[in-house]
Design goal:
The protein has 524 residues and is mainly α. It is 79% helix and 1% strand. It contains 18 helices and two strands. The longest helix has 42 residues, at 2-43. The chain has a two-stranded antiparallel sheet with strand order 1-2. It has helices spanning 2-43, 50-69, 72-80, 86-104, 125-148, 155-171, 178-211, 216-243, 252-278, 285-290, 293-328, 339-367, 373-393, 399-431, 437-449, 452-465, 473-483, 490-522; strands at 108-110, 334-336. It is elongated and about 90 Å long. α4 (86-104) packs across α11 (293-328) and α4 (86-104) runs antiparallel to α12. It folds into three domains: 1-48; 50-415 and 488-522, no CATH class; 434-483, no CATH class.
Length: 524
């Protein structure tokens, strides 16, 4: 009887889960059907072009998958640290992604992303249209698969792989710009390493200047206003350079100068607010963490705005190129973006985020490593700094790789510090193993609450009195294994790294296959 009840409950749960998934699939499919109807009824009411209608459906599908996968990197850390609820993050991301696309998305888009192929080698407009359709659909399918596998991947790399594969299928290997491809391949390593190192450095700086101090609140009053003002400077510069570049194109010096002026004003406002808030707080890490809540919310919104302004082109760029080619029967380096094309991208990203985004948001925010508000602050700051530096150096980095790399960076730093701390505690216990237990616990408590300088002095005195420094190399290695804690999930590391490596080749192979399939259908 009990077994039957358990089985019935499992059936009901599975049924509920299936219905939930069916609802999401139907909602996404309804949006795509709505796009098909809209284009055929209002954009092409006189002569419904089946190619453009099909391309619009592909663009809608791509936009849904961008929302499901790529947007998680902007809001995931804020959700994981509980600065934002999942629902609040989805609302903020949807609003600011759409605003970025519609306000600052620009009126033209590059038809060949990153210059990965030479379009002058394609002389037939029909071949160009089939190429872009295959690239768009291949990138969308790969993003769909990656989302199902819980792997945050680069949307830009997906579409680059699609264009590369379809381009080679259309024009041979000579059509590819292998120098650009080499730079993109190098970014698989450069992006996450840059992001991880910068995030880890900022986290260590905060630990040394605030959380490792005996009076954390006093340290926070002094340091946090500088950190927040620096973040405002970086994000203002980032937003001007990346989010508003199609409305106001300036160089790094002007963008940095404007950002610095905003940061100076912010400093005086934030200093007063921090002092007022900190005066009512207890001397704990949690209290210091709470000071970073509002900066995280603003960073999630601004990152989403910049993402909408830039990466919506990954959804609508090929569609805009197809639309231009259909209307002009030609091939251009840059295509105009009609408002209806931009609306498909903006609405599709929001729908994909609402339906499927929570899965990747949870993965990015809490499943790779535990994120607090301070750690998430470092991740967001690292993302903006790395993009600015890479842009000035001409490196084609991925915002997805940077953000996820930053999360791994803070996780591995935590792992190192925790393991090192555990070793020091054991050394203290070993040195005082003949003392009364109460005295040992008192010493450990004193060590835990001490500042970095005091800790260093205690350990220096300990080393002078203990024989632990005379351990052999083999004994040291064995000792390190005993303290090893894994605070970063290795399974996620391997899965995500693999997904990053295969994104371009898999998208390319799929796009080549789709190009030949589409061409076969379209040829008389």
């Amino acid at each position: 009887m009990l077994g039957k009840i358990v089985m019935d409950n499992q059936i009901l749960q599975n049924k509920s889960f299936l219905q939930h998934d069916v609802f999401k699939a139907l909602a996404a499919f309804t949006f795509i059907l709505g796009v098909i109807y809209f284009v055929s009824a209002f954009i092409l009411p006189e002569s419904a072009n089946p190619i453009l209608i099909t391309a619009a459906a592909f663009g809608a599908y791509m936009a849904i998958n961008i929302g499901a996968n790529d947007v998680a990197n902007n809001v995931g850390p804020a959700v994981g640290s509980k600065a934002l609820t999942l629902g609040g993050a989805i609302v903020i991301a949807a609003i600011f992604e759409s605003a970025g696309a519609l306000i600052a998305g620009g009126d033209v888009v590059s038809t060949i992303k990153k210059g990965i192929i030479d379009p002058t080698l394609i002389t037939d407009s029909n071949t160009f249209i089939w190429l872009m359709m295959a690239a768009l659909l291949a990138a969308a399918i790969w993003l769909n698969v990656a989302t199902a596998l819980n792997a945050p991947v680069s949307t830009t790399h997906s579409i680059v792989g699609g264009v590369l594969g379809a381009g080679i299928a259309a024009g041979g290997f000579g059509i590819a710009n292998w120098t650009v491809f080499g730079k993109i391949a190098a970014s698989w390593v450069i992006s996450p390493v840059f992001g991880g190192v910068i995030a880890a450095l900022f986290l260590y700086l905060i630990k040394r200047t605030i959380t490792y101090k005996e009076d954390r609140i006093a340290a926070a009053k002094k340091i946090v206003p500088y950190l927040i003002s620096f973040m405002v400077w970086v994000f203002s510069t980032y937003l001007i350079l990346k989010g508003l570049k199609k409305l106001w194109k300036v160089d790094i010096f002007i963008a940095g100068g404007v950002g610095f002026a905003i940061a100076v004003v912010t400093f005086f406002v934030v200093t007063a607010l921090i002092k007022k808030a900190a005066s009512r707080m207890e001397n704990t890490k949690e209290s210091v963490n709470n000071l970073f809540t509002l900066p995280l919310i603003f960073s999630a919104a601004l990152l989403s705005f910049a993402h909408g302004a830039n990466d919506v082109a990954n959804a609508v760029g090929p569609l805009a190129a197809i639309n231009d080619a259909v209307l002009t029967a030609g091939i251009v380096q840059k295509a105009s973006i009609p408002i209806w094309v931009m609306m498909i991208g903006a609405i599709g990203i929001s729908i994909g985020l609402a339906l499927y985004g929570p899965k990747l948001i949870k993965t990015v925010g809490s499943e790779i490593t535990e994120l607090t508000k301070i750690r998430s602050f470092c991740v967001a700051l690292s993302a903006a700094i790395t993009v600015i530096i890479a842009s000035q150096l001409g490196l084609p980095v991925s915002s997805t790789h940077i953000a996820v790399g930053a999360i791994f960076g803070v996780g591995f730093l935590r792992e190192y510090l925790k393991n090192n701390y555990a070793k020091r505690i054991d050394e203290i216990r070993d040195h005082h193993k003949h003392d009364e237990p109460e005295k040992v616990e008192a010493l450990l408590k004193e060590f835990e609450l001490a500042s970095m300088e005091t800790k260093a002095k205690i350990l220096a005195d300990l080393k002078a009195k203990t024989a632990i420094t005379r351990l052999t190399g083999k004994e040291r290695k064995s000792l390190k294994k005993g303290y090893k804690q894994e605070l970063v999930k290795r399974s996620h590391l391997y899965k995500i790294a693999t997904a990053w490596i295969v994104t371009v080749p898999l998208s390319g192979i799929l796009a080549a296959f789709l190009f030949f399939t589409i061409r076969g259908f379209m040829l008389p």
